[in-house]
Amino acid sequence: MKALATHRHHPMALLAIILMALIATGGLFAALSPKDASAEAFSASDVAEGKKLFVSNCATCHGMNGEGRKDDDGNTVGSSLIGVGAAAVDFQVGTGRMPMQESGPQAQRKPVQFTDKQISQLSAYVASLGPGPSVPGEEQLNTEGADVTKGGEIFRINCAMCHSASAAGGALTEGKWAPTLRGVEDKHIYEAMETGPQNMPVFNDNNLSPDDKRDVIAYLNQLEENGSPGGYSLGALGPVTEGLFAWTAILAILLGCAIWLGAKAK
């Protein structure tokens, strides 16, 4: 009996073992799980200043705490910003789409209303509301060594049906449109893929890896550098505009010839 008693465990031993197992599991999960894109460092002062800007410029539509707002008929006035992350704010405000000038099918690009510092502060406040994609850094935007051929393939499969093969943009339904990608900053293209603004789907890292996104950006940059080797592009919108221009020019020439012949006959 004494031998058995010496092997008897303390009543708290099982609890201690379970607690240690939980701590070890949590540590392993934190070490091995993918880093959340929302883990972005903002100072408390940036968050505080961002909240002031938000209340003054955004709360009318998006609610005082970014929870979104609906009108009396239940129609959405401003969507919830909880969990959209800093990248969504940097894209929407950094391209002038927000604050919206007027209601419409979608926000239009216009001159930017805030300074870079103010945009960063607004991003900081919205990022504090919930985890979401962060603003891409230099490493994510570095296209040196990117595969332009692969980027073109990804673009044609995923983007060309809306933005057109030449990235000139195109019309969608119900008065909406896919904007041109010419003259858009690399950062904003990356953010658009990450956040899916307007009618665009979200291409997170599970759909398109950071390398894939860099390849697409490199391809778009090359498109812009190449320009229009065939001459005037007519907006690079394809055979519709080209055919319309050709018929208009031909009809104008024929009409001019008819008028000239008629005047000569008289």
UniProtKB/TrEMBL annotation:
Gene3D superfamilies the record matches: Cytochrome c-like domain
Presence of keyword Transmembrane helix: yes
SUPFAM superfamilies the record matches: Cytochrome c
TM annotation in the entry: 244-263
Subcellular location: Cell membrane
PANTHER family registered for this protein in UniProt: CBB3-TYPE CYTOCHROME C OXIDASE SUBUNIT FIXP, CYTOCHROME BC1 COMPLEX CYTOCHROME C SUBUNIT
Protein's UniProt name: Cytochrome bc1 complex cytochrome c subunit
Natural source organism: Dermabacter vaginalis
Taxonomic lineage from the root: Bacteria, Bacillati, Actinomycetota, Actinomycetes, Micrococcales
